[in-house]
Amino acid sequence: MTAFAERSVQSNYKLSAQTASGQKKALLKKEMQRFFGTPMYFWNAGIGLIMLLAAGVASLVMRDKLLAYMEMAGYPLPLLPMAAAVIGFCLCTCPITAPSISLEGKYLWILRESPIEERSLLWVKVGFQLLLTLPCTVIAGMCISIAFGFPLWQGAVLLIATLLFAVGHAAFGMLMGLCFPKLDAVNETVVIKQSMATVLAMFASMAVLGVAAGFYYLGSKTAPWTALALPIGVFALFAAVCIVILTRQGPSLLRKL
Fold this sequence. Notes:
Largest sheet: none
Radius of gyration: 20 Å
Number of strands: 0
Shape: elongated
Number of domains: 1
Number of helices: 12
Strand content: under 5%
Oligomer: single chain
Helix content: over 70%
Structural class: mainly alpha
């Protein structure tokens, strides 16, 4: 508990003498220091980043073996949705925003009383997750597209779908952190591994993937373009709803903590 308190004390952002741009940079730097400086946080909320990069590299290195396995199946496999599902699952295991509010602990008031707008505080945290997940998603998507020989338009569809999901997941995790805070946790392990916010950020997002898969199946019964358009619509709606709610309700939820 002492170690947790000492780490939390470092959340004194000292923003008063900085410009708005400088304040956001200071907050972003603080988020980065906490994420990479807390092993429990990094390995539990960042393992999906490693999985994304590993999946991309493995698809290139093991390309011939993977193609051989697919031929052994005896029928064409839906590689594009399978690739999207793998990337989406990896993103679900990156609930970086979900515990970020609770990790402030009893020193959250310092952050809340800073001169920067509350909405900006929340979006800096969301932006930090996107700063990590979006590049990894693009790298994994491009590697997989090259490995399986996807046409350019299919590679674009894969990136659009997964990037939309990444944005929605980051905003959703932030909402869960605001709705289910755990500011009195005795250590970061409780916040990161056992909090309701983290659990929902992971498994509710997986449920969204399941819904998208269901729409893909239904769409495949009509036309190929429908099978691709419906899941993208699900991810776009997921991202839009989470962004709107976080923008409108996020500041008031933060003030109530």
